[in-house]
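Figure 6 in text form: structure in, sequence out.
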């Protein structure tokens, strides 16, 4: 059997890496030099993200605080908290949500006074965002937006950065798209979360390497921000309050977040 071809590290370019996770033909590896963990043999993109949204056409009317749909109710609550926290750091202004999907966050940001818009590569998702939520959403490439000269006061990426083959180029590009003092907000899965620590050698949960290309820790994500030229880089402790969860659950989540062991990482930086 022919050996799998593992790509160089997208951060430092080193060709030396060790296998960390195996799932089918996929090899998630860690760079020997800079310690970044990434997918060593990503599949072709093609229609990948049209399939990502296939078969999950949600009822937009259920995106509300009292929704009968538990998943929609939870996402509504999380997005409201995201917008409130961003608003405290950067009140109002022009906001771009990169990888906006069906547009729920863009809708929440609009309702809180932001001039919000979104971009995504999925035509299916953007059609949903425009038709069901009535938001300003377009099928556009990030670099195309950057070339247009448009600038934004806030750029958000919620579980998007890990999908890019070269997230470091993405962060450099995003910084050029921000107005002076503008804010970049990124949330990604946390490779040092308790879930991943306990799983050891088995890659489990929603972070499937079919879609994810880079697996960040707090250290590697903050370093990526700094290397891209952002200032005031911070890990935010943004544990979310979720409807229907017990007080004990919320306390455990806050404790895990404080210890850097929660499922997700939130990092911000300014232009």
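Output sequence:
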């Amino acid at each position: 059997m022919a050996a799998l071809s593992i790509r160089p590290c997208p951060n430092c370019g080193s060709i030396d890496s060790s296998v960390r996770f195996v799932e089918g033909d996929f090899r998630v590896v860690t760079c020997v030099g800079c310690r970044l963990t990434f997918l060593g043999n990503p599949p072709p993109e093609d229609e990948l993200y049209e399939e990502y949204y296939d078969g999950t056409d949600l009822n937009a009317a259920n995106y509300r605080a009292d929704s009968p749909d538990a998943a929609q109710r939870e996402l509504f609550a999380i997005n409201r908290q995201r917008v409130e926290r961003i608003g405290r750091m950067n009140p109002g202004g022009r906001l771009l949500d990169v990888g906006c999907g069906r547009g729920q966050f863009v809708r929440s940001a609009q309702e809180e006074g932001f001039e919000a818009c979104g971009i995504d590569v999925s035509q299916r998702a953007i059609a949903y965002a425009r038709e069901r939520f009535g938001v300003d959403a377009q099928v556009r490439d990030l670099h195309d937006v950057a070339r247009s000269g448009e600038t934004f006061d806030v750029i958000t990426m919620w579980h998007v950065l890990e999908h890019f083959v070269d997230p470091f180029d993405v962060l450099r590009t995003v910084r050029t798209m921000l107005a002076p003092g503008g804010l970049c907000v990124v949330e990604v899965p946390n490779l040092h979360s308790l879930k991943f620590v306990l799983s050891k050698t088995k890659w489990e949960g929603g972070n499937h390497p079919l879609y994810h290309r880079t697996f960040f820790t707090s250290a590697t994500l903050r370093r990526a921000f700094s290397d891209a030229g952002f200032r005031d880089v911070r890990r935010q402790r943004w544990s979310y309050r979720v409807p229907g969860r017990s007080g004990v659950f919320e306390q455990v989540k806050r404790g895990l977040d404080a210890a850097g062991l929660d499922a997700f990482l939130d990092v911000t930086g300014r232009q």
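Caption detail: The longest strand covers residues 178-189.
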